[in-house]
Each structure stands twice: as C-alpha cells, then as structure tokens.
Amino acid sequence: MASPVQPTHPQLAVSAAIFRGDKVLLVRRARSPAKGFYSLPGGRVEFGESLHTALMREVDEETGLEIDIVGLAGWREVLPAAGGSGHYLIMSFAARWLAREPVLNDELDDFRWLVPEAIGELKLTGGLQEVIEKARSLVRAGA
Questions:
Q1: CATH assignment at residue 28
Q2: Is residue 6 part of a domain?
Q3: Which of 23, 24, 59, 63 is most open to solvent, judged by the fewest CB atoms within 10 Å of its CB?
Q4: Based on the structure, what is the number of domains in the chain?
Q5: Residue 126, domain extent
Q6: Residue 107 lies in a domain
C-alpha cells in the first residue's frame, strides 16, 4: 500500500497532557508519524474548528476519554525530514481526566498512566517531557 501524500504546507494539530491524579496518560502511536513512540493523544485541527473543539474530538476519537481542558502547556514544531514526513505545529494543552476508561482506536496500540518521573524509560516523541512538566504545573495551579 502506498503511503499517503503529505501536504505541502504546515498542518495544525493539538494534543492533551491528561492528568488523573498525579499520573499522566501516554499513548503509543501504531502508525506514522511517530510509530512506536509514546506521546500524547491528539491530532489535526479541521478547517473551521476551534483548538478546544479539535482537542475534545481527537481525545474522544483516540481514547474515548472525557476531559476538562485547563490551558495551553506549550507548542512544538515538527519539520519535514527525509522519508516524506509532514510539517506540523502541535499545540499541547493541559487537561484533567473526567470520565471513562481508555479505549484506543487503531491509531494507537498501548497506553499507560504514569507519574511524570517514570516516563524517562519509554521511547518518547521530542519535547514531550517539557510539555508534561508545564502541563502538570498548570493542573496543580488550577489554572
């Protein structure tokens, strides 16, 4: 099967550092980009969709969770690399878990609720630890 054609312009995406008590949800990507890496649930923003609406939709589609968005925890730009990967601007938000247990869609193949100090052993997407630390401070502050 041929790989999908990558857009020729940057794509806007969102992700959520979802905290349940002192643990954050990490999910492992089952497909490219970032196949095999642990990251945060999220995905592309659709045309005309607000960032918060996109985040709630993506979290629901990927994990089935209900969340409360606390605030913006950071952003990351992923530039195209050799092999045809895309160009993404990812806006990462801090969130609190509200309801339901994770039920992963086919984009993900594993999840873990971990204290941030325990994630260092995992294969992580770039910049993830910094976003999680900022998100944790926002959640703790009740922003």
A1: 3.90.79.10
A2: no
A3: 23
A4: 1
A5: 11-138
A6: yes
Extract the tokens encoding 40.
């945060």
- Reply yes or no: is the peptide bond before residue 102 cis, omega within 30 of 0: no
User: Residue 4: exposed, middle, or buried by beta-carbon count in 10 A (0-12, 13-18, 19+)?
Assistant: exposed
Cα 74 to Cα 3, 16, 64, 71, 92, distances in angstroms? 30, 10, 23, 9, 5
* Residues 34-82 pLDDT 10s: 899 999 999 999 999 999 999 999 999 999 999 999 999 999 998 887 6
pTM: 0.91
| 68, two tokens | 């409360």
Residue type, 71: G
